[in-house]
Each structure stands twice: as C-alpha cells, then as structure tokens.
Write a structure and sequence with these properties.
Maltoporin, Chain A; about 700 residues; 38 strands; 22-stranded antiparallel barrel
Length: about 700
C-alpha cells in the first residue's frame, strides 16, 4: 500500500512540475440540511465561477443542464441525444448501495442479468454490455482490466449522468450503448457537515461522514472529506460486504477565471470470490435431434466454499480538474487522473481452490479549448481537444493441487498494455430555434499482450463522428434526430488467441423532449436503431465461460418522465422496449435474441413529503421495477427462459426537528429494496443465478 501511494505522490509532483498548464476545476453549491419545502432550490453540481461549465444543474429530481453529452454547459432540452440524470436528491431518497441500485430506475438499462453478484457492476444499455467500456468518472474513462474493475461507492457521488447512444466523437473509447458518467462530490463554499450511522440486513453496521467548506476566509481554498466504514454480510454466508472508503478533495480558486480541484479516493473492500450457485445439467435434444447435456437451471447449492472465498480489492485514484477562462470567447480545461487497483480473489470450483491476483494502472488525460463565437446570425460553441489514456495490467492465476484454504501456485500469468490517443473537434451551432451539433474524432490505438512466451501486438486507428439536429420551440418542445459512431478497444483476449478486435458501432436516434411550461417536470422519448460489431461478451463454450466476440443489432423505444412539484411530491417513471438480435456469433445463433435482454422494462417511483400539520417532515416513498421475460442463452432454448418479475422498493423518513427544535439536522430513514423478497432464477449466457432478495437499511443522520 505504501508503494502505491508513493507512486501516486511521485506521479502528482511530476505532473504538476511538467505541465505547461495551470490546473483548476469547478465549483459546487453547498448541500445544506435538506428540508422539503414548497420552494425547491436549484442545485448546481460542479459549477465554475459563472454560469459556464456546469456538470449538472438540478432542481430536485429534475436536471436542467449538463456537460456529459457535449463537454460544454448545454441545457438538456437543447441536447439532441437521450440523457438521464440521477440527481443528489434521488441518491439521498433511495440510498443505493451499488451502481446497479443507483441506475435501476433509468430507462434502457438492464441490471440484474447475473442475479446477486456483488463482485462487479455488470449491466447493459440498449442491449449492449457496458460493464468494461461504458463507465466514466468525472468525464474521464474509468480504466478496467479483465479481473480488475473499479468498484463504486455511491456515498461518494454528487450525481450520475447516463448518456444513451455513442459518444466516441468526444470521449473516444466508449460503448455504442452509451456511457455512465459518475460525478464525484466536490468542495463547497458554504460549510457542510454530516455524520450518519446505519444498520440493517445481514448484520450490517456502517458509519459515514461528509465534511466540506472553506479553508481560508477569502474562499480561495476549499476542502471536502467523505468516507465510510462498513462491516456486513450478505444473503450468502460466504460472501462479505466489508468496506473502507475515504475521498479527499480540494479546490483552489485564486481568481474568478481560474480554478483547480484535486480529487482523491482510496477504497479497501472485501466481498465473495464467487457468488454463484451450482447448476444442474441434463440431456437436451437440439433441432437436429442430437442429444447433448446442457444446463437446466440453478440449484440452491452454493458453488463456492466459505473457507476460501474472500475477494479483496484495494483501489485508489488521484487527479485534477483545471479550468481557466481567458475571456468570454476562450476557456481552457484540462482533466487528468492516475488510478491503480489490486485484487486478490479466492474461489472454489469443482472441489479445487483457485486464486487470481491482478494489478492495473491507468493514466487518463483530456485537454480541450472551448471557443464561443458568432458568424452572422449563427452562434458557435467550438470544442477542440486532445485525449490520451494508457492501461497496463498484470494478472497471475493458479488452480488446484492444494487443500482448501491454501493458496495454489500461480502458474499462469499475462500482461497487457494499451495506449489510446485521440484528437477531436465539435461545433454546436445555434440559429434561431435550430440546434446543430457536428463532431469528429480520430483515435490511434496500440496494444501489446503477453502470455507465457507468446506476445501479440495490434495497431489500430479509427475515425468516429456525430451529427445531430434539433429544434427548440418557445413552449418547451424539442424534437431531434442524431447519428453517431463508436470505437472501443477491449482488454484481454478471445478464444482464437491474441488481442481482441476493437469494437465498433453506429446508431441513429429520433427523439423528442418536453419541459412542461411553468412546472418543474420534463418528458423524454426516443426511438433508436444501433449496430455493434466485434463486441466482447462472455459465452459458455465447451463448458467454460469464455470471452467471444459478436455482432448485434438493437432497436427500441424509451420514454421517461421526471417531476419535482411544489407540494412535496417527486415522481420518476420510465418504460423501454428493446429488441436485441445476434447478427454473428455462431451459425446456430444467427438472428436469435440476445441473451437476458427483455423486450419490456418499466419503473415508477413516487416520493411524498408532508408539508404541514403534525406529520410535517414525514416522507413516504414507494417504487416498482418491472423486468419482462428474456432468454437465458443465445441458443434461445425454452428450458432457460427468464420469467417476468416485479420488484417493489420503499422508503420512510422523518426529520426529527419537527418533534423537537433541538433535534434540528437529525433525520431517521429506512429503505427497503425488493420489499416482497421476489427471488427467481435468472439465466444469462447459459448459466443461471438467483435474484438478490430483500434488503432493509435503517439510518440516523445528523447535519449541521
């Protein structure tokens, strides 16, 4: 651990010493003690001095502007692409414990395809798996390796932006299905202090703290320190849910035009090396009459062994966000982050112990210049940038040959290095009510993979682009059409050996957005048609879960409505239809539906806070998540069909100051997910799991 932080310090000093740019970031308004009142306060997350450059501006549940879709501060109504936002108020009301919990009410996102599995945040957007290539942190790609995926602590977030559809024209390596941008908590000018204790299902004990405010009297230096400690079990006795998390942040703003924010994080977490159940295998007759033995579903027998099942991961990151506004025309930004993680995964399979140790290191930088100008009657917001990222990982594995509880010898090793360099330009044109966005990017990728005595190298280059046209009416209606392409390098190898082919894709989308006049509410709807080639997925091949590449086509429709009304009522509702088909994988799967992608998904969340009377400050909330039927493997065998299911969630809270003014700032809250304990089998890629059961968490929070 000392070696890791030593590398971090050396990297930071070298970067600060060698950079030709001064470093800065954006401001955030304080999160004061939240009391639901008739007047909703607009909260700006990561706002620089002035109105430009905001990451998210939100009013309760409703986000009004953001930067994730364009890297510039653009009203969401004028952004010609599907964007959803999980705001700070939504996070506080629902208290998600994982990234999957946080995005579960977002249209088009399929969570739970692998049942209860706390090891990875595996999910898809519009039928496209985005686990490895779709998660970004503060606008920068989150670098992952085959067994080294960064874990998320939702308590460390201000908000989450979900951008559906390709964004490679400005982000480079990213999924065709879209990206999820995780926005870290940042320092506030107004002092903010919070402590919280939690308890709940499976022996859960947790303590949180979140402290922020100015360090100097002139507000030129701000700080924030967020952290938690948790000891908990899960519904599987062999699987822990322990965690230590701390995230320091500092903002230095010597002038209104210049700002630097440094963001750090360290997390030490332990969960289970396997969370799977033993699957039954039985005879299966295919269309040609051949008899094979295939999985017939999961049993309730745990596939691992509690004596050897700890999956410990240590991860850290440190980076900065810099912004300097030269004048009203030019603004320079540079973001950079160094990250590292190490894993030690113990597991037992077929009576033998297995061990995987993996370390990865990533460096990501993005420098861009925003230029605002006017040509005749057309306003331009031009963005030009350079984006460089580098991934390096080493993996060692061993299996069998020793008694359970003893580490096997690590006989197999591999390593890989990927470097991606991209240059991009984007122009957002505004003429009367018309909005036109044009963007293009060229990437150069080098990749080197070593395994044993073999080495495989690849060099690729690719152009990606985006074109979108929208029309914004004076009464809040904004139809649009967009087209974009994507390009994504893949870590690891495939069955044929060597470095995996990069994934490419394209999408066309037609949508409409509507902000209800005079009401803090918005509606969004879109239809889409996307294609992705050489996508890396997991498929059971010869009885083993292996990486393979497929071509797919996904078509569908989505609609979402969000509102925070003046009477203490918050509403969030969504519906999505998705038809994902295999174009190329194996001859017998061509034209089949993609595994575990349902046609229909829907969700509804209703939250109400009593405004007056004896029950003032009492908050009641309930949610419903519906997941339609899907197919358990890419052969589309009926034996592994996933039946439709409905999950109910609930929340209850009360601000204790309504009982006694001396208790101002104290809140008691209870959250329950899967309240009715709906636990069914879910199969993906030929292997079956079980849904996560009911989980209840009670908390006591004090803000001052």
């Amino acid at each position: 651990m000392a070696r890791f932080w030593g590398c971090v310090v050396k990297f930071s000093l070298a970067l600060l010493a060698s950079s030709a740019l001064v470093l800065v970031s954006n401001d955030a308004l304080a999160q004061s003690s939240r009391t639901r009142t008739i007047e909703l306060e607009e909260i700006a997350v990561q706002a620089p001095g002035g109105e430009q450059g905001r990451a998210i501006t939100a009013n309760g549940y409703v986000a009004t502007s953001g930067r994730s879709a364009t890297k510039t501060d653009t009203p969401l109504l004028e952004t010609p692409q599907s964007v959803s936002t999980v705001t700070q108020e939504q996070l506080e009301d629902r208290k998600p414990q994982t990234l999957l919990d946080a995005v579960a009410y977002t249209p088009g996102i399929r969570t739970g395809g692998y049942g209860f599995d706390p090891r990875y945040d595996a999910f898809s957007i519009r039928g496209v798996d985005v686990t490895y290539t779709g998660v970004f942190r503060d606008g920068l790609r989150q670098v992952n390796s085959p067994n080294g995926l960064f874990r998320l602590e939702p308590y460390g977030l201000e908000a989450i932006t979900i951008l559906r559809g390709p964004a490679a024209s400005i982000y480079g390596a990213s999924s065709t299905g879209g990206i999820v941008d995780l926005i870290s908590k940042r320092p506030t000018k107004i002092p903010f202090r919070e402590v919280e204790v939690q308890t709940g299902s499976f022996g859960r004990i947790q303590g949180n703290f979140d402290l922020s405010g100015p360090v100097t009297a002139d507000n030129t230096l701000l700080f924030r320190l967020t952290g938690l400690v948790r000891e908990a079990g899960t519904e599987i006795k062999a699987v822990k849910d322990d965690r230590i998390f701390i995230a320091p942040a500092f903002t230095w703003q010597p002038t209104d035009a210049t700002r630097l924010t440094v963001l750090g994080e360290y997390m030490d977490s332990t969960t289970g090396g396997t969370a799977a159940y033993v699957n039954d295998y039985g005879p299966y007759v295919d269309r040609q009459g051949n008899i094979t033995f295939k999985s017939t579903g999961a049993t309730k027998v745990f596939a691992g062994d509690k004596r050897y099942n700890d999956f410990r991961q240590k991860q850290g990151r440190i980076g900065y966000e810099f912004e300097h506004r030269f004048n009203e025309m030019f603004t320079l930004r540079q973001n950079a982050r160094f990250s590292a993680l190490g894993t030690n995964q113990e597991y037992v399979s077929v009576g033998d112990a297995g061990l995987v140790r993996e370390n990865n290191w990533g460096l990501v930088t993005d420098t861009n210049l925003e230029t605002r100008l006017r040509t005749g009657t057309v306003d331009h917001t031009i963005l030009t940038g350079l984006d460089v990222s580098r991934l390096s990982y080493r993996s060692k594995e061993g299996f069998g040959g020793v008694p359970i509880g003893i580490d096997p010898s690590l006989l197999y090793s591999s390593r890989q290095t990927q470097t991606l360099t991209g240059v991009y330009i984007q122009d957002q044109l505004k003429w009367q009510n018309w909005r036109l966005t044009l963007g293009g990017r060229h990437d150069w990728l080098t990749s080197s993979f070593k395994s044993g005595g073999a080495q495989y190298d690849r060099n690729d280059k690719r152009f990606t682009g985006r074109a979108a046209l929208g029309y914004v009416t004076d009464f809040g209606l904004a139809p649009y059409v967009s087209y974009g392409t994507s390009f994504t390098p893949n870590p690891g190898t495939v069955l044929t050996g060597g470095v995996a082919e990069p994934t490419t894709g394209e999408q066309i989308e037609l949508g409409v957005k509507y902000d209800l006049p005079g009401t803090n509410a918005s509606l969004r709807a879109a239809i889409f048609d996307l294609r992705q080639d050489n996508a890396v997925v997991y498929e059971v091949v010869d009885g083993l879960n292996r990486q393979v590449q497929l071509d797919l086509r996904s078509q569908g429709f989505e609609i979402e409505g969000v509102a925070s009304l003046n009477d203490g009522l918050n509403v969030q509702a969504s519906y999505s239809y998705n038809d994902a088909r295999i174009l190329k994988l194996t001859p017998e799967t061509e034209g089949n539906r993609l595994t575990s992608v349902p046609y229909h998904m829907a969700s509804f969340w209703l939250d109400y806070t009593v405004q007056e009377g004896p029950a003032k400050g009492l908050g009641l909330a309930g949610g419903m998540r519906y997941v339609g039927s899907s197919l358990g493997d890419n052969l589309n065998r009926a034996i592994l069909d996933n039946e439709p299911r409905t999950y109910l969630d609930a929340a209850l809270r009360y601000d204790l100051e309504n009982l006694n003014p001396r208790l101002k700032g104290m809140r008691v809250q209870v959250n329950a997910t899967n309240l009715l304990d709906e636990v069914s089998q879910v199969c993906t890629s030929g292997y079956c799991y079980f849904d996560e059961g009911r989980k209840v968490i009670a908390s006591l929070r004090y803000r001052w």
